[in-house]
Every structure is written in structure tokens, then in C-alpha cells.
């Protein structure tokens, strides 16, 4: 886990800076003064902002007891989440959802949760739907990825968690809100859409931070980034990993230090292929864990490597060779008996474009960055039009979820979520 974190800290890729979209909350670069102008340095810098301590309580729930005996991953079938409780007080509750691969204890989710707790909310952090633990504990097929299907199971999870907290913790909940970043932001939007029909929560606010707008485009970016590694020698990869490990260890021991990160980047002198590979590699490791878990739950014969109690590494490495596109095409959709439907149509139904019913909903807010590498110019324009200029916050720098920690972003989020 530490090694993956170190890799994330220094993963770099360059992107094109789209033109600013005019809105009420656009910030100029001169005004913003963000320390990282490269979008991917910004993206991964947030991984060095480690959440330390706080008011969180780790809790577990068993939703699928039949998954206790999944071979080689026995007794890992409980949903793990965190509760930040306003002790003995009636307070609104906000659910916080992380991005691809995130656990309920990922730093981004936990630091945002602490901020919401400090504002007076009860807060629950939950794992991403694209997380191996979620695949085992919640996904009916064991292969999450088709959001119109995943949202129904995730909506049920929110209900189970809420009922558990009111019954066993006597949590006094005034009302509900929901927020998420990256894939978690997109999922939160689908959950609001579900709630507009079922009206269990009647969410007061939805905040999406750098949501994945077009899933098809986003997974192409990540697959291409990983494939850049084919142009890098094994020796060079080992050197980069070793250097990143040593500097990352220092950051974990002594705290977030922008100067150290910039110095490491300058020392490594990473090529574009190396930057792309580091980013793609990190995402692919997370996906590989989901692939591995999915094939233990429901083996489709995709993975050919042998597996035994003491022989799992080769199968896990093979799982990490599966691309996002291959995962959707060969695992997700066949599990849902959708293998004969056009992939493009299914991906479109998992994108923000499909939620026209939420357009101009006054409770919906989007925070994003002009240099986010999973967004094209038209995606940024779509987000601005989707929520309206008063509910759209656009920053010039920050890459993909790289500025959750920055004071301006925290101040703006607080202004949206501040209790009346």
C-alpha cells in the first residue's frame, strides 16, 4: 500500500489547458496562485496530504453473508465505512464517496469528511463502487462498472447504513446531503437521480468534485497512459520506483512538503511516457484488484493463471494486465447479459450526459479544474451548462482532484455546505 501511495505522489502527465468557461466562480491563475501548474503534478500532490487522526469511527456491515466463503478471499465480505458523529446532537448527515479504487479511509474522502464534520455535519465515508472490497461485499455480479446497475445497489447501501446508524448508534439525523469526487462524484449524481424517484433521503445538496463526465473518454485516457509503459525499459521503471519509494517514505514520515515534491520531479526528469505510465500504473493496480475479486466471485475464465493458497501473485499480475475497456467489454457487460449491446451505448448510459433530469437542479454543485486531464473542453462546457453559472466552480489549475486541500477550494466548499 505504501508503494502505491509513493507512486501516486509523483505520477505526472501533461494536458492541454482548455479555454475558461465564463461563470460566476471562475478564478484567474493570477488570483488562484496554485503551486503546481502541471495538471498531473497537481493531481498526485494531493496524495501527499495524509489524513492524520480526527473524529472518525470505523464500522462494518455484512450485506451479503453468502460471500464469506469466496475462495482465497474468505471473510472479506463486510462493507467498511467511517462515521464522524456529532455526539448527542441532531445534525444533517452527508455521505462522502471517493474515486476509483478509493476505500472509505482514503485521504481525500477523510479530509473532506473532517471539514464537513467541523461545519457541524454527521459524516459517513464510503468506498468507491470500483473498489475490490465493494466488489465482494456489495456488487451482485462481483463486477461493478455499469453505473445504472451499480447505483441501485449503492442506493440500497445508503439505506442500510442509515438504518444501522439510527438503530445501533441512535444517530439523530436532521436531513441528508451527498458529495463525491471523480467517479464518486458521478455516482453521487446517479444516486440523487435515483432518490428523485424513490424519495428516501430527499437530499438537500449534491456536490460533485471533478466528476467523470464521459466514462468512455476517461477510461481511454487511463488505458493509454498505462500503455505508455511499453516504451520504457524495465531498468528505468525500477529506478523510478526506487526513487519514488525513498522520497515518498520521507514525506510519510515528515509530512507534506511541496519543495520536496518539486525537487524530486526535477531530479527524476521524467519523460512524457514515464509520467503517463506512472499515472496509468496506479489506476491499473486498483482495477486489477477489482478484476481479481470479480473472478473469485464469478469466474468467467478470463484469467488463465493458476491460483492456490500460496500461489496468487501470478493471477493478480494477470488481472492487472486487463485494461479498463477490456474489463467493461469482457467482464462487466457479459455478467449483466449485455454482451450483444453496443459498448458505446452502455458507456453513454454510465455518463453524466444521461442525467438530463438533474439539469439546473438548484441543489447540484460542480467543482472542477480547467486542466483536468479526463475532461475535454466540451465536457467543461457541459458541466457549466448543466448546473448553471451560479453553481459551477472552475479553477485554472489542480488537475484531477489535486486541489481538495488548497485553501481557496476548501473555502468555496465551505461556502456551499455551510449550515444555515
**How many structural domains?**
2
Widest sheet, order of strands:
1-2-4-3-5-6-7-8
Question: What oligomeric state do these chains adopt?
Answer: single chain
The major sheet is characterized as: 8 strands, mixed
One letter per element, helices H and strands E, the order comes to: HHHEEEHEHHEHEHHHHHHHEHEH
Mean pLDDT: 88
How many beta-strand segments?
A: 8
Fraction in beta strands: 5-15%
Shape: globular
Distance between the termini: 40 Å
Helix content: 40-55%
Question: What low-confidence regions span 5 or more consecutive residues with pLDDT below 50?
Answer: 1-20
Radius of gyration: 21 Å
What top-tier CATH class of the largest domain fits best? Answer: Alpha Beta
Structural class: alpha/beta
The CATH architecture classification of the largest domain is 3-Layer(aba) Sandwich
CATH H-level homologous superfamily name of the largest domain: Alpha/Beta hydrolase fold, catalytic domain
Tally of individual helices: 16
- In CATH terms, what is the fold-level topology of the largest domain? Rossmann fold
What features would you describe in this structure?
This protein is α/β, with parallel strands linked by helices and 420 residues long. The chain folds into 2 domains: 2-19 and 37-47 and 219-345, no CATH class; 48-214 and 350-417, 3-Layer(aba) Sandwich (Rossmann fold). The protein is 46% helix and 12% strand. It is built from 16 helices and 8 strands. The protein has helices at residues 2-9, 29-32, 39-45, 107-119, 132-137, 147-168, 183-198, 215-227, 234-254, 258-268, 272-297, 313-319, 324-335, 343-349, 377-387, 407-417, and strands at residues 56-62, 78-84, 91-97, 122-126, 173-181, 206-209, 364-369, 392-395. Helix 1 (2-9) crosses helix 9, helix 8 crosses helix 11 (272-297) and helix 9 packs antiparallel against helix 10. The relative contact order is 0.19.
